[in-house]
Write a structure and sequence with these properties.
DNA/RNA_pol_sf; RT_dom; about 350 residues; 2 domains; 15 strands; globular; four-stranded mixed beta sheet
């Protein structure tokens, strides 16, 4: 698996319990932390899965021309994976590689075995900006495979795919790499591989059955973000707390965790008198009441005005224009700036 090199990591140091970590010690510490997210979950156990009959239909077949087309569209600027094969090789030699790679794909599907080397993932730490929304904590890393696979069966996924998906999810290894230092390999008990096409699909299937029973509220799901809202008339009683309780129960039943610190509450009201809407609670603690928040790139405020969103866009544009001016002074050709 590969990923974009989005930021430099030179000379990264972290102080932990009074000890300064760098190099391989830092990479090892980060990998241990990442793996700890799902250490309390059991690895996939085929004996716990619902019984199902052998697939009446074989898996579909992949053809060399399809593989060749994908290779021609490979992004050469993405870093190589643990096999250290540059994407430039894939893009420059698609006609020579399409046939053997296609054979590997079809053999993998027909045998239900995903190649172990393709399960290895190198992780380059990148700072993650906090989002302002209600979301599951590290949701992609806490997908319980023993819960996910039965959901695939319940949805009617072609049975011939189930062994292959089980193999795809099992014994996935990861290692953290910082500059030229790399941690030891560790095995993930849960989660879906990020950076793959199948990972987000499996995650969507996992959360597909998260439904709220209340007919007076609306809710929207986008990846690991859930937004719920209701419109109240004067003296009406809010039922949002009931919906939050439903979400909490679903989280517990699916072995996930809700990040209460990232869950926010915003009240839009134009009445002159103070509202007496009770505060919403998660784990018995009130949510942060905010005047504005960002959802799917749009900053909304409690007055339904565009000021906060416009200011955010102007600030973002100003930063990028500054970078362009600096690059222009350094003599970068105009064609490379656009």
């Amino acid at each position: 698996m590969s990923g974009k090199k989005r930021s430099a990591t030179n000379n990264i140091k972290i102080v932990k319990n009074g000890t300064t970590l760098s190099g391989k010690d830092l990479a090892q510490s980060l990998n241990t932390y990442f793996l700890s997210v799902s250490n309390d979950l059991s690895p996939l156990n085929p004996l716990l899965l619902p019984a199902y009959l052998p697939a009446p239909r074989p898996v579909p077949k992949i053809f060399p021309d399809e593989v060749c087309t994908k290779m021609l569209n490979a992004k050469v600027f993405k870093s190589s994976g643990p096999d250290n094969i540059p994407n430039r090789i894939i893009k420059d030699f698609p006609y020579e590689l399409a046939e053997p790679v296609c054979h590997i794909f079809n053999t993998s599907l027909s045998t239900g075995e995903f190649p172990n080397i393709w399960k290895d993932a190198l992780i380059t730490p990148i700072p993650n900006a906090p989002s302002v929304s209600c979301e599951e904590d590290k949701a992609f890393d806490r997908i319980d495979h023993n819960i996910l696979v039965p959901k695939l069966l319940a949805l009617g996924v072609r049975l011939s795919f189930i062994p292959w998906i089980c193999s795809f999810l099992s014994n996935c290894r990861q290692s953290v790499k910082i500059d030229n230092f790399q941690s030891d390999w560790g095995v993930n008990n849960a989660g879906v591989p990020q950076g793959t096409k199948l990972g987000p699909i499996l995650f969507i299937i996992m959360i597909n059955d998260l439904e709220l029973a209340s007919s007076s509220t609306d809710h929207w799901k986008y990846v690991d973000d859930v937004t719920i809202s209701e419109s109240l008339k004067k003296n009406e009683v809010s039922v949002l707390q009931s919906d939050l309780n439903t979400i909490e129960r679903w989280i517990v039943n699916n072995n996930m965790k809700l990040n209460g610190k990232k869950c926010k509450e915003m009240i839009v009201s134009f009445v002159r008198s103070e509202n007496d809407i009770p505060r919403l609670l998660i784990d018995g603690l009130p949510l942060d009441l905010v005047p504005s928040f960002k959802i799917l790139g749009l900053t909304m405020n409690n007055k339904l005005k565009w000021q906060d969103n416009t200011e955010a866009l102007v600030k973002k544009a100003s930063k990028r224009l500054y970078i362009i001016r600096v690059l222009q002074r350094c003599g970068l050709p105009p064609n490379n700036l656009l």
